[in-house]
DNA sequence: CCCCCCATGTAACATGTTACATGATTGA
DNA sequence: TCAATCATGTAACATGTTACATGGGGGG
């Protein structure tokens, strides 16, 4: 039996309940009201996803308000769930991930705080920087080859993307300083 | 009969065949090899989507290589398709679109070159700037309220997002100058 | 002659969307 | 008591993913 890997939404839910136990409703509110917000949020997505995670033992729900019907379940991550989450956030970053899995990449970073140490975080940022260093020039080259005739919208859209990646590169260079390498450990501040 | 509106992928296909007639294979290659690349690209997504567009008269396919079996179809946009495309790219931009439909927003910009004049493009950029001016401070406020204890990953991920939006604001301010307003028309360069 | 690229398609499957439904609790 | 918010769920549907299948043509 091949265990197909969780979706982004499922990882997001797993990470959030690991940070702190929550109900399905809590999770929905997070997606509705915070900047985490493009991960769905409709009950038809959340509740089935929680059920799947529970079936795979990645999270477990404790029933509160036991006497009423339609009991409320408070979920938290199981040790196995934490392992799976850690494995996911620790995956190597490929250049193409910047194009095809960009959201997932930042989600991984946002959720890694509670499952890995600063060495893994640092490695993540180093790999992201490497990917950006190889991808940005590639995009600039594409931009340079685009013909000047016709509407500029395509070219402008591409340069918007390039600027976004450059902003991310600056961000990563700043961020990495908060995670000193083994050699420099403890010397910061 | 309610005509449900096309998906992003369908709009992308519609826009691309309007720029220039193409086969399904051409479209797949675009998604595989260019920066337009996170829009799917698998045959199981492209060919059914083209079929749907054809059924709604948004595109039409001309059959080439008529004598062989498995004939190759070259698609182009119908006048009705162009209307629908124009309507879509011209929609008003809401602040929440920045969070929930960001990709779609940039796709709309990239595809609008061949269907609207520079006044509409300018309006698009003005509305995007307005949305950014209202959204960026909102995010900064959220960032300021986040507690300093615990792992910084969440805060850093948020500031990465903020920097991306700021980069987009700079880009939009630059880009808008390529589309002079009615009052300044023709005065540029 | 074989492999790769051109070129199109389908079938099974999982996920997510939209809309609906239920009922408890809290504050005005 | 009325409305809003808390809280969970399901059913129908459309879309997209993965994997498979077919076949022609060109180049080494």
Oligomer: homodimer
Structural class of chain A: mainly alpha
**Alpha-carbon distance between the two ends of chain A:** 50 Å
Specify the biggest β-sheet of chain A: 2 strands, antiparallel
Tally of extended strands of chain A? 2
Continuous helix count of chain A: 8
Pick out the low-confidence regions of chain A: 185-189
Return the string of H and E elements of chain A: HHHEEHHHHH
Cross-sheet strand order for the largest sheet of chain A: 1-2
Shape of chain A: globular
Give the % helix of chain A: 55-70%
Total domain modules of chain A: 2
Of all protein chain pairs, which has the greatest interface, and how many residues does each chain bring to it?
A: A-B, 37 and 37 residues
Look at the structure and give the mean pLDDT of chain A.
92
What does the secondary structure layout of this molecule look like, with pairings?
The structure is a homodimer of 189-residue chains.
Chain A: H1 8-19, H2 24-33, H3 43-55, E1 59-64, E2 72-77, H4 79-89, H5 97-100, H6 102-111, H7 118-145, H8 153-175
Antiparallel strand pairs in A: 1-2
Helix pairs in contact in A: 1-3, 2-3, 7-8
The first copy, chain A, binds a DNA duplex (28 and 28 nucleotides) through α2 and α3.
Descriptive account of the structure:
The structure is a homodimer of 189-residue chains. Chain A is mostly helical. The first copy, chain A, has 2 domains: 8-88, Winged helix-like DNA-binding domain superfamily/Winged helix DNA-binding domain (Arc Repressor Mutant, subunit A); 91-184. Chain A contains 8 helices and 2 strands; from the N terminus they run H-H-H-E-E-H-H-H-H-H. The first copy, chain A, has helices at 8-19, 24-33, 43-55, 79-89, 97-100, 102-111, 118-145, 153-175, and strands at 59-64, 72-77. The longest helix of chain A is centred in the C-terminal third of the chain and has 28 residues, at 118-145. Chain A is globular. Chain A binds chain B through residues 34-35, 37-38, 99-100, 102, 106, 109-114, 121, 139, 142, 150-154, 156-161, 163-164, 166-168, 170-171, 175, 178, and chain B through 34-35, 37-38, 99-100, 102, 106, 109-114, 121, 139, 142, 150-154, 156-161, 163-164, 166-168, 170-171, 175, 178. Chain A binds a DNA duplex (28 and 28 nucleotides) through helix 2 and helix 3.
């Amino acid at each position: 039996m091949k265990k197909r890997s969780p979706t982004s939404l499922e990882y997001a839910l797993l990470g959030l309940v690991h940070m702190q136990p929550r109900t399905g409703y809590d999770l929905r509110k997070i997606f509705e009201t915070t900047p985490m917000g493009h991960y769905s949020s409709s009950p038809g997505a959340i509740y089935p996803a929680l059920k799947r995670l529970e079936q795979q033992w990645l999270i477990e729900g404790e029933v509160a308000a036991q006497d009423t019907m339609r009991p409320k379940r408070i979920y938290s991550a199981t040790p196995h769930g934490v392992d799976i989450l850690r494995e996911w956030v620790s995956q190597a970053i490929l250049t193409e991930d910047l194009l095809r899995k960009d959201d997932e990449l930042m989600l991984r970073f946002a959720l890694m705080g509670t499952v890995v140490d600063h060495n893994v975080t640092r490695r993540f940022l180093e790999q992201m920087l490497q990917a950006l260093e190889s991808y940005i020039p590639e995009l600039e080259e594409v931009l340079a080859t685009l013909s000047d005739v016709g509407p500029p919208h395509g070219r402008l859209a591409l340069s918007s993307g390039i600027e976004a990646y450059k902003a991310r590169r600056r961000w990563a260079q700043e961020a990495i300083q908060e995670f000193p390498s083994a050699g420099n450990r403890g010397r910061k501040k």
